[in-house]
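LOG
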Amino acid sequence: MLRRKKFQVIYPEYFDSELSKKQGRRVNLSLASKEPTLKKLIFACNKLDIDFEEQKDKAYPSRWWEKKGRLLIPINKQEKKLKSELIVELAEIIRRIVVKQKTLEKQLNRKDTKKGRTKSAKNVIRRK
């Protein structure tokens, strides 16, 4: 069994833009994202080269009915960071992930609409 004192516990709710600070969000709305997931947190930890333990069946205490999971990040005595600093670093990476996903989705939508336009333009030219 792990001792909680030696780990920092990180929940996806810390980064949820749809939650208020009273409901558990720990970052500013400018850094928060819609529907943060455990997968995004894991990606951010891997990007920062942080060791962690994943617990999928856990829930944020004030939202006990939603089991989104959590990460346990060991506190390294040599590189001791404040939890708030760690949360901000993770939030920045998660925000970048969301922005990249949105831009990729927009690009795909543009390609689809362009294809539709070129097909209709070809049909108009053929009719003449």
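LOG (cont.) second protein
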Amino acid sequence: MKTVIKAIISSIVIHVTYMVAVMVVGYIKTRNYKPDIEGAWEKVEILQNEVAFGKSSSPFLYLLTFIVVAVICGWIIFSYKKLVAKKYFNKIV
């Protein structure tokens, strides 16, 4: 049961890290953006009248990636425990 909890916590940490990193990159890009207003008037046909920030995806996608990452983390933790136990057992014998 500890492996399952560790896998879920690992998945949460990975997802939170990813979301924070995406927000930081977006903030840096927004902060450093310098529009070319004079050059934009030369190409009037490509000016947009609507602005959207970010993207939207289905909440089920986040649930699916959470479960898949938790399974992968659980497999890695389980494999690591077996590998360490095997090395420890071989040293004793």
